[in-house]
What we know:
The chain is α/β, with parallel strands linked by helices. 31% of the residues lie in helices and 15% in strands. Helix 5 (128-136) runs parallel beside helix 6. The structure holds manganese (II) ion.
Amino acid sequence: xxxxxxxxxxxxxxxxSFMRLPYTQDPAYLDQADTAIVGIPLDSGTFYRAGxxxxxxxxxxxxLYQLGPYHPILSLDVFEHLNVIDYGDLGVDLQDTxxxxxxxxxGLAPLIEQEITPICLGGDHSISYPVLGALASAVSxxxxxxxxxxxxxxxxxxxxxxxxxxxxxxxxxxxxxxxxHSIQIGIRGAGRVPDPKGDPGPLPFEVxxxxxxxxxPPDQVVDRIRRRVGNHPVYLSFDLDxxxxxxxxxxGSPEIGGPLSRDILxxxxxxxxxPIKGFDIVELLPxxxxxxxxxxxxxxxxxxFLALLAHRKQKVSQE
Length: 319
Ligand SMILES: [Mn+2]
């Protein structure tokens, strides 16, 4: 059975699963799925503007019109190679962080057990930590490819060690990611200066700063990412605030001086072929997104992630 987006439905009517793919947790579908879209509406890890709990719903809504099955640059029909379901949203406890993390890990476990690649829709960036924890039961450590304007490697914010500023320090401490094969792209802004009180120092990630992206051609960014991760299995984490605040206003901690979508797309497409084991796209804040441009961008990027997985599956099946 092939799962295909339902394209004959009116884009403005009916229920919104991602691209109108099957919206299900039915084991009969899980048996055949390669990839699952999973909403994780947790935003209690934010210190400034909350509201990313509404992100998954907005991404689904804005996946219904422009997106089609064919990827013109990778030249493939994504759904001919990849069986994709929309797994719905995981339950989360917004008052109890540790409980929320357990719920996320347990919620992802049936997917990981069946080797289904999760594409997680945040929520804030704190979700990366429990998602990496869930993936660690299958593959660990992972090489992290992290698009963001902030490193998210603080030790604590005002004494709190589990929030959207700390996920990658916690994940590195747990051994779930390998900093020596990890790379961060787009880091910029005043927050880049380590806090001498709370930050025990940078982790040994490679960093391509936001400023470097102004002049570095996309193919050279791609070369650096591919050199850094080598043949290691990869986790790709995409914080929408890596984009310029003018492009992606609908996010909790917007930063100026970032890339446009046309700068990011060739970098993502350049990652075709990498063994990516999981994705997240985080920090969409629909309340600050009056023209829905950030949600539209996010929906398109999820389609790019699907295309990367489809390309890899096509290549492996041809070998
Ligand atoms: Mn982040």
